[in-house]
Amino acid sequence: MNKRIATVIAAGLLSASTFSLAETPQNVILIIGDGMDDQQISIARNYLVGSQGRLTLDAMPVRSTAQVLTVDNDDPNKPVYVADSANSATSLATGVITSRGRIATTAKTDQSITTIIEMAQQAGLKTGIVSTASVTDATPASFIAHIDKRFCEDPSMMIDGLMHGRFPIECESYTKANGRSGSISEQLAASNVDVILGGGMQHFDIAAEASDKTVLQQAVDNGFNIVTSVAELENANNDSKLLGLFSPSTMPTLMRGENGRIAEAPEKSVMNHIYKYLGEITPPPVMICEDNPKFASMPTMKQMTDAAISHLDSNQGFFLMIESASIDKASHGRNACGSIGEVQQLNAALDSALAYAETSPNTLIIVTADHGQAAQMIPEVSLFSNAAYGGLPAATPGLIARIKTPEGSIMGVNYATNESFAEEHTGVNVPVFANIVGQDVIAPMITQPDIFTITANHLGLK
Amino acid sequence: MNKRIATVIAAGLLSASTFSLAETPQNVILIIGDGMDDQQISIARNYLVGSQGRLTLDAMPVRSTAQVLTVDNDDPNKPVYVADSANSATSLATGVITSRGRIATTAKTDQSITTIIEMAQQAGLKTGIVSTASVTDATPASFIAHIDKRFCEDPSMMIDGLMHGRFPIECESYTKANGRSGSISEQLAASNVDVILGGGMQHFDIAAEASDKTVLQQAVDNGFNIVTSVAELENANNDSKLLGLFSPSTMPTLMRGENGRIAEAPEKSVMNHIYKYLGEITPPPVMICEDNPKFASMPTMKQMTDAAISHLDSNQGFFLMIESASIDKASHGRNACGSIGEVQQLNAALDSALAYAETSPNTLIIVTADHGQAAQMIPEVSLFSNAAYGGLPAATPGLIARIKTPEGSIMGVNYATNESFAEEHTGVNVPVFANIVGQDVIAPMITQPDIFTITANHLGLK
Questions:
Q1: Which residues are the signal sequence here (chains A, B) (predicted)?
Q2: Residue range(s) occupied by CATH 3.40.720.10 in chain A
């Protein structure tokens, strides 16, 4: 049979079988690899499955790319070319392009924007959030809360707070005293999200604004069952709302560099300091990635995903956002092995989501990133040297992790966007993957706000 | 009507109409943006059509990604994570993974590998090459020639040649005197490719090995009509083989930085030199991109593409490779505007290819890159500063071009992979685009050797 005809017939059969399943609920699982651009995926692939291997996400049947769009806060008609996780998550959660740092509020005019979770709740669907960051961090927060500054995470930040411990930020106008909804943790505690799992206990185990209770106690009063360990998570019943907080802030990464090492500067000889084309440059020693001992007591992203899906599975349909946060956070900190372990976690969580979709075939699974990140794979032997004569390393002006992969080669991961304490994001468009349910609704190139629209359409919310 | 059923019916109609066109020839146009990873495309998009705009390649109906695969020359079982243009073009041209620097020869064992152009010629199809590099450069060469070192470009390099004017390379064993085929330009001059257009006159207007003729004269003797200007190109008849050489080496780029500027180092205050968290860092002044005066007399990539297609169009079918070389070369030289102009040229050449495919609908058009490149879009105001307090620039340890785009914002393009005279490639997987003809034959993720297989299958060569 002609291959094209066979494809058409197969598509017809698939349609027919889908119709018989029309009674199964419409669900969306949105998996966000924070900072998971194609460099991060390629780096993780080389380490986890080898350069010719395929990650689960590589094998997804639908592939697209998303334009990451940001605007200036003073002039929202003016584009800004590099996003942060707050404005990009706001695009994904609300369909509205905003300015950096904003949690589901509009640029300049500072209006709250209804999120996909709020819309889903309104329509009687179940909702959930899983993150390896603090659940008050920008990505999860943008699906639930509304505030103009992502760093207003808990009541302690609301008066005279310092971002990164150094830059003053103004959160006070968002306090309940000023007629607003208070800090992000307070907004989460007051929410009706069915399941929230991740890190960030320090933002809840703290006195709430103008209250003799902690934010955590407020969450309990609002009907949340609190779990803080793997055992409690696995034994939690599905009858009440669930808030799982497994670490004070960001959850530790699954993997780390050998003995905790991160990317390091090449060592330059005296002659090379005098003139850059002279003298020797010695790259840092090779390392392997190893299990991060701090991760030991943590639930995996897959365990949190399984628990969340079990909590949300019903005839009502659900929206679940799952974030692998430390692809980004580890890249800011030049910790290539940390990012690799987070891609591994995302991949395992995706396996769970795909297995669930086998049993609930109207489940649309979308995997994407919120923005690009600094890490770049660069040559172990410079292209501008001659291996036959010894081969010079690529003399990065930044910091490099030289990682020996299980397949026995050395992979150089370069970080060189900012000499200061952390690396920057990049402005590249980001990959989008989907299961077969996304086939007819995700074009080869979309924008981040389109992901909101696709999600809302699938859930029947528009 | 149900949307899915409508899609199936539409696909059926499309199939039917395709069958009636089964008599039109099977052609492949492979467009390679050298170094055109997603960063390069995003940078060019922002400048050329704005952050919310779409390039022609963004709008292609089929999108995939390709794993870039390289092996070690001493141990071909060992992966190398960053390719050069020679080994990646060899993957595309032959389906065989090889080591860096090799032009259609096997790693370690140094055997010639039959290229798609040689297979097409054997089957009676027409063949062509267009490049904005010297036609002897790695990408075009890998489709026609066979030699283990890409820098053996002409007879002058064959004895005591120096790569980049500094590293000795051994080409002598490939001389005709040693029973081989000689330098790359000599192999091109001896070929039966129907049309070869690009730069590189200096590699032809030079004494051939052991001959009183130049390589160019040898090409004429072999039946090539030589053209060297736009007028000659447009007036060339299609009856004989055509060799167009429009510049001594790489063709100048369409665009350049303001007054020829490229990326520059931020200026650091004395205090900042003492300790990196102190004192001021002043980023280089903003620039615009401008027309490159050196480009004025050059044919555009679109003009070369039109001429090549006109030369190749027949009932026999053809294979045409078109390379936008200086996305890569300008990025090696930290010239962001140069790369942007080359993406613009590629996009315009793609417009021509798509217009041709309208009239010859069995034409498969694939656009891809050979490897990643150094350029990264980084924030104009660091993520780790506070715009409300003035906003610090991202303090790159590398070099940065701050480009004012036509939509009025500033885009930072960072280069920081090697402090030496040129930037490095990166190991990221690269985008793949195709017209609708590629819909059923290009999976969401492929390898570079798969592109050879897809091409060969479409041309009926397997």
A1: 1-22
A2: 25-254+292-374+417-458
ipTM of the complex: 0.94
- Residue B215 CA to residue B201 CA, distance in Å, equals 10
**Length of chain B counted residue by residue:** 462
Q: Give the architecture (CATH level 2) of A25-254+292-374+417-458.
A: 3-Layer(aba) Sandwich (3.40)
Contact B236, B372 (CB under 8 A): no
Q: Determine, for residues A429 and B82 on separate chains, whether the beta-carbon distance falls below 8 Å.
A: no
Task: Name the residue facing B419 among A380, A397, A424 (closest C-beta).
Answer: A397
How far, rounded to the nearest angstrom, does the alpha carbon of residue B426 sit from its chain's CA centroid?
15
B225 CA: distance to closest CA in chain A (Å): 36
CB contact under 8 Å between B425 and A383, yes or no, is yes
Which two tokens mark B422?
């040129």
Summarize pLDDT for A145-166 with one digit per residue, the tens: 999 999 999 999 999 888 777 7
Strand bridging mode A79-80 / A241-245: unpaired
Q: Does A13 touch chain B (CB under 8 A)?
A: no
Q: Which of A96, A80, A82, A85 is nearest to A32 (CA)?
A: A85
pLDDT tens string B249-299: 999 999 999 999 999 999 988 777 776 666 688 999 999 999 999 999 999
Label residue A362 exposed, middle or buried (CB < 10 Å: 0-12, 13-18, 19+).
middle
CA distance A46 to A49: 6
Cβ pair A375, A79 in contact under 8 A: no
Q: Other CB atoms closer than 10 Å to residue A462's CB: what's the count?
A: 11
